[in-house]
Amino acid sequence: MEGLTVSDANLTVYIHPSMTNKVRGAILTQLSSLLFRYSEDLEGVLLAYQVNVRNKVARILPGLVPHFGVKLKATLLLFAPKPDMLIEGKVVKIGRESIHAIVLGFSSAAIMRGDIREEFKFQIEKGTETYICKSHKGHRIKVGSIIRFALKSMDEEILHISGSLMPPNTGCIHWLSKCGMEHDPHTKRCDPLSLSLSSLDVNI
Amino acid sequence: MATHEMEDGCLSDSDVQSSVAEILENVAKPPIMISEHDGDLYGQLVLMLIPVEKNLDEEILFVTALKALSGAVSKINNIFHVSLLRNIFSIYIWDYGLDARNAILELITNLAIVPDKFLEDCLEMLVRNFQPPGRIRGYIYQPKFRSHKQNIYVQLHEALCYITSLVPIAPFKLKDILDRRMPKVHAEKMEMLPFVECMLGLESNEIGDYLRSTLLSMVVELLVDLDVSITWGHILKEDNNKDIFDIELEDFHNAEYNPVGVSGGKKDNNPDKLDCLMVIVCEHIKSSASDGHLVKVFDILMESFRKTVLNAYRSKFSQFIMFYACSLEPEICGLKFVIFLIDIFVSKAEDPISRMSAVCYVASYLSRARFISCSVVSSLIKRLVEWCYEYCHLQAGSERINHPKSHRLFYAGFQAVMYILCFRMQSLMDIQELKSVLFHLPLEAILCDPLDPLRICLPTIVKEFLCQAMAAHLLKKPLISSLQDNLLESEMSAAFGGVERLHMFFPFDPYLLKESDRFIKPNFESWSMVRKTYTNLNSEDELDDLDPLSADDGSEDGRDDDELAGGDDDEDELEYSINQMSITPRPVFEIAMADGRVLIPSRMPARIRPSVSPV
């Protein structure tokens, strides 16, 4: 699956004076408030973090409420898919007009009829809605299947993904792995990168 | 064209769906480019979906149109189909029958999962449906509509759960919407109650795992807001003739309750709203207990309590939800609550007001909760007394008390001990192990300390405590209490209580809301039912002098301490029931009487055993 990166980040967390005796808890709360939200600074959705090193000294900001800024290093797991990347998700609803899937447990993806390639036909097989591939009868997509699809766009506010099953290497993972389509040399897979993001300020 | 075909009756669902899809596509252009025919068709479609009451035929058309739209959601556009969407999102499902409701909810759930567009509007529409439309609000709580109301709630919850299963972050958005739509204190009763009931129903669903803390804390905040807006002004005047042990207005329910005006003098009838809300919340807690997830609910309630109720010292009734929740699960929740409070009291990291408030809660809770066992009470009293004793030691050597306020934690803590013992002393004495624990407590050392709690704490409590302690022979040394007769509070006690009047804060005093009382009453210990250590003695005049003065309103009707009803005899003798009283050989001690007489007991007990009382 593409779009996931692991980054190292240098962050500064500003903490309210009332939390002076519970600094670690305050840092964790602050970072947790960023989870599953798209962050422009981080250019992606924060999925997980690990706080590594924390300075023992913090600088107090002058102001009405004197917050103090704790500098720390953290390892972040980010989800930042770009268009045409291949994403995997679990199908939760099949309809005549669309397929709906959930990606990484938090993002809902929808693939509209216009983005499903012609060879997939909608049928109701034994009471279950299924998409069956005309050319390969074994290739079926139904509720519960894991599918790979190409990303068209992602709404940053609601984390809705619009996907497409047009590229030939998309479809049900189970069938694709059986046919050896998984390791398509044309797809770009990103290895987890180590990026240094400098001085990101997280404001309270 | 579409209407004609529908009336024909020979079309399949997919045909209807495709014609509706076509209508939608044909108007998805700038207005100039839409043909009149297409515009008319679209207009007819919009008309079919107008959210008004419909007769049978109209409702059938309505259902058909909805089902067709459900299949064509991808064609719906929020720029070109504004009027259609406006009608859809204004629908009240309460107005229609089961088929229509199912069709509406299917459309809404399908719209919610279309990428980017309609999620918030759909959630908003569902939340708006937590409250019935104005015209039926008045009778929705009548018994014959109860199952209808429940069905609708179930459908709404199912729709929300279904949307969450397809769009996992829906609860985030729902939180914001609930926050915005939550009725405030001044809302009408019939707006408030259905909303809160439906909201709490969500908590028991799958979606509850995400939203539990938000939902419960919002409800608790509403309860507290209502509570503090009710003033005691017209109900109970601070009367020096009444004291704490008489404020048992058990007959209050019979009186007409006049709603106390909130600011501005409006008759908001907040007590009635609060009463009904308490019923709803207690019912919900009860059903959580029977579903087996009371502990989770309780943890959230305790957190909300800590943030809102604990320091809202004008709250009179909302704290009883904790009382009720504890009573359902005394070993787990009941114990957890009191330990949580005591931890706040002893923790140096907390602010003094919270600490004092916490110990007042401990005092009132341990006295009034019937479901707390004596052994728990005994161990907690021991912990409090030991804290007080240590405090005295730390203060020893420092200058004499300059002002009660500087030692207010100590006075609050010891007053709590005395208050609990007023209620529980006799029951502790009945159990041998607990009695010996009590006798080993360093009570006299604390009482004789320079901090002098007897002078500073509330006179009525001091009086009652001394009567009971001396009758039980808990105290050996003569203690001439400098009692200011008949005063509810003294200058000194007011000084330690401060502006917040925490010296007179007994949060679990008798509950006064009529409807919700049925949840509280079975577990609530009223003062009239408490066995005191001196009730074993003959009820004579001497005891009457020691007793708190009775008030002259009707509040005593509930009391059944006949012995203390005030005899006119002037007996000097105290008759001891040998079975009940202490078995230690009694030294000759003096009981100081309020009128200055000194009483010496005239009889020794039949059995003598070695003393077990502390030096």
Automatic annotation (TrEMBL), chain A:
Nucleotide-binding found in the keyword field: no
Chief place of localization: nucleus
UniProt-annotated location(s): Nucleus
Record's keyword annotation contains Nucleus: yes
Gene3D superfamilies linked: 2.40.50.1060, RNA polymerase Rpb7-like, N-terminal domain (3.30.1490.120)
Keywords: DNA-directed RNA polymerase, Nucleus, Transcription
Its biological purpose: DNA-dependent RNA polymerase which catalyzes the transcription of DNA into RNA using the four ribonucleoside triphosphates as substrates.
Protein name (record): DNA-directed RNA polymerase subunit
Source organism (scientific name): Platanthera guangdongensis
From TrEMBL, chain B:
Biased composition (Acidic residues): 553-573
Domain of life: Eukaryota
Chain positions covered by the region annotation Disordered: 541-573
InterPro entries in the record: ARM-type_fold, RNA_pol_I_trans_ini_fac_RRN3
Family: Belongs to the RRN3 family.
Protein name stated in the entry: RNA polymerase I-specific transcription initiation factor RRN3
